[in-house]
Amino acid sequence: MAKLKPSIPKGTRDFSPLEMERRNYIFDTIKTVFRKYGYSEIQTPSFENLTTLTGKYGEEGDQLIFKILNSGDYLSKVPNDRLLNIDSKSLTHIISDRALRYDLTVPFARFVVMHQNDIVFPFKRYQIQPVWRADRPQRGRYREFYQCDADVVGSDSLLNEAEFIAIYFEVLTSLGLSDFDIKINNRKVLAGIAEELEVSDRLVEMTVAIDKLDKIGVEGVVRELESKEFSKNAIERLCVLLNSSGDTPSQLQLLKDFLKTSTTGRKGIEELEELLDYVTTLDENILRSLELDITLARGLNYYTGTILEVKTNEVQMGSIGGGGRYDDLTGMFGTPGLSGVGISFGADRIYDVLLELDIFPKETSVGTRVLLSNFDKEAERYALPLLNRLRAEGIAAELYPSAAKLKKQMSYANAKNIPFVILIGDDEIKNGFYTLKDMINGTQTQVSEADIFKLI
Q1: Is residue 26 domain-shared with residue 92, that is, in the same domain?
Q2: Residue 112 included in any domain
Q3: Less CB within 10 Å around the terminal CB: N or C of the chain?
Q4: In which domain, by residue range, is 237 found?
Q5: Is the dihedral of CA 172, 176, 177, 178 positive or negative?
Q6: Contact status, residue 190 vs residue 297, Cβ threshold 8 Å
């Protein structure tokens, strides 16, 4: 029998020790800023009840949810007529009642409703966990990836959105990115546009098409709307907005002119202006990265107010973050009236961006700080107390696990980017000192134990 070649599912990845050091650098940077703004960490299960997830992401999103087959003979409960129809959609809820989470926001809403008597509102949480989407794998798009979310629920204040913009700005600049756009829009503005175009009942179809603008261009959006039988007049008027450009004040004026008769749309404009005022008061430096994009739609149905999306201009990549306000999400779980707003960082895409720009700090590649050599049993026994003291001082240290030639031990240190090696031979043991080798510049120095702690 032929041996199977090891493989992993498409859209997933293994991570080496170096890659994990770099990923943790990203996670730690994000966590530090989240905590600074008063957010506390929670975690939720990797899978949820299928009914919890479906109907929250739109028709296209629902199709990307990974369903989990029921245990045992899951087909035994399917009526024969359903089996003969060969219709997977009609079978799904019979053979599967659980699914891998699609994002962290819907599980968070479920968490809030279930624990509402135990938490203090406004409730500010962050969550860094993997999510799964049955998407077509491509550069920057994976089927398993981490989201780094922060949400606040139980507050209507636009100060929350302004602070999220500040969080994006601080995290990305802390990671070394300098040229990125934090794009903002408002779903009320989009609802107002639909009113003006007399397609309010087709808002979701319109926003799903607009959300693809970056990928398929204006012509692609037009073709999609034509295929859905939007009127020629509505498409032509919408194209005025899709083809617009200019700074934030000019875009706001264009919207005001377009939405003259829409109460909902003008409410969205007022919220955008209030948000911009908050950001200006918090930190005017953020304005250089902030952009009003009236074509920004974000295809998730639960957004009801401000929507955000972040893109880097230094690398060809999709969005590296996004979010928005969702006034009605907890209402789907029986608790109406709790307004929420949240953002997410795409950690995997951010990793790819930092890697391509080669701006990971060099220290993220360092795990072990010092390697103690091992030439024989006597040297091993001599090294063990020092090894213990180094670790007690918080210094990551290793003793080479078995006696070996110097060349082999040096190769091991180089391969792991260990910056220091302590050589322990007969002379060192006899005279009570150590030889410290700096692996970066190649120098060797005879030192006492006290000197080791000063130099490393």
Answers
A1: yes
A2: yes
A3: N
A4: 187-293
A5: positive
A6: yes
Rounded CA-CA distance 322/184 in Å is: 9
Sort strands 144-153 and 180-186 into parallel, antiparallel or unpaired: unpaired
For residues 144 and 207, membership in a common domain is answered with no
Total domain count, the chain: 3
Do 288 and 159 fall within a single domain?
no
Q: What does the pLDDT look like over 148-195, one tens digit per residue?
A: 999 999 999 999 999 999 999 999 999 999 999 999 999 999 999 999
Q: DSSP letters of 199-211?
A: -GGGHHHHHHHHT
Same domain, 226 and 260: yes
Show the tokens assigned to 390: 């180094």
Asked if 126 and 164 sit in the same domain, the reply is yes
Structure tokens at 93: 């809820």
Question: Which tens digits make up the pLDDT trace of 1-23?
Answer: 567 889 999 999 999 988 999 99
Q: Are residues 173 and 41 in the same domain?
A: yes
User: Is position 136 within any domain?
Assistant: yes
Determine the pLDDT at residue 92.
Answer: 72
CB 310 within 8 A of CB 183: yes
Quick: pLDDT tens for 186-242. Answer: 999 999 999 999 999 898 889 888 888 888 999 999 999 999 989 999 999 999 898
Lowest mean pLDDT among 78-82, 285-289, 383-387: 78-82
Residue 352 is assigned to a structural domain of this protein: yes
Give whole-number Cα distances, 136 to 9, 12, 133, 143, 368, in Å.
Answer: 12, 11, 9, 8, 38
Residue 299 lies in a domain: no
48, 108 Cβ separation under 8 angstroms: no
At 70, the pLDDT band (50, 70, 90 cuts) reads confident
Q: What is the pTM of this model?
A: 0.83
